[in-house]
């Protein structure tokens, strides 16, 4: 997980991802299929657990949502402020490989 430094009164997004391949010397290897399945299920579980923001691929935790509603913190993505709730949608392209509730099941 990556968590960028945030200024006072700001929460920066964190990024959670799983690598399903790795390099050993000059050869590339796939991790075991069960790892890929577990990683996919875990990412989808997180998508279902945390609330949506105005950016479709960013989720917000319960405590951060409360603070954002009270305007005690600012949520930003790429130096732009985003809304804590999906009422006012911010159009931002999805990063490649982003898991959403519409993502297909992994094919093994």
Explain how this protein is built.
The chain is an alpha+beta fold and about 110 residues long. The protein folds into two domains: about 15-50; about 50-95, no CATH class. It contains two helices and seven strands, in the order βββαββαββ. Strands 1-6-7 form a three-stranded mixed beta sheet, with no helix packed on it. It has a two-stranded antiparallel ribbon with strand order 2-3. Strand 2 and strand 3 (about 25-30) form a beta hairpin. The longest helix has 17 residues, at about 35-50. The relative contact order is 0.19. The mean pLDDT is about 75.
Question: Key terms for this structure?
Answer:
single chain; 108 residues; alpha+beta; 2 domains; three-stranded mixed β-sheet
Brief digest:
This protein is an alpha+beta fold and 108 residues long.
Based on Cα principal axes, name the global outline.
Answer: elongated
**Helix content percent band:** 10-25%
> Which segments are poorly predicted (pLDDT under 50) over 5 or more consecutive residues?
none
Describe the largest sheet: 3 strands, mixed
Number of helices, where a helix is a run of at least 4 consecutive DSSP H or I residues: 2
| Structural class computed from helices and strand pairing | alpha+beta
Order of helices and strands: EEEHEEHEE
Q: Mean pLDDT across all residues, rounded?
A: 77
Note the gap between the termini.
Answer: 25 Å
């Amino acid at each position: 997980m990556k968590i960028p430094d945030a200024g006072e009164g700001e929460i920066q997004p964190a990024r959670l991802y799983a690598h399903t391949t790795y390099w050993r010397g000059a050869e590339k290897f796939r991790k075991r299929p069960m790892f890929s399945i577990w990683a996919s299920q875990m990412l989808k579980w997180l998508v279902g657990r945390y609330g949506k923001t105005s950016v479709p691929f960013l989720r917000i935790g319960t405590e951060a949502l409360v603070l954002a509603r009270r305007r005690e913190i600012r949520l930003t993505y790429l130096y732009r402020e985003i809304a804590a709730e999906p009422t006012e949608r911010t159009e931002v392209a999805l990063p490649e490989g982003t898991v959403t509730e519409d993502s297909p099941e992994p094919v093994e």
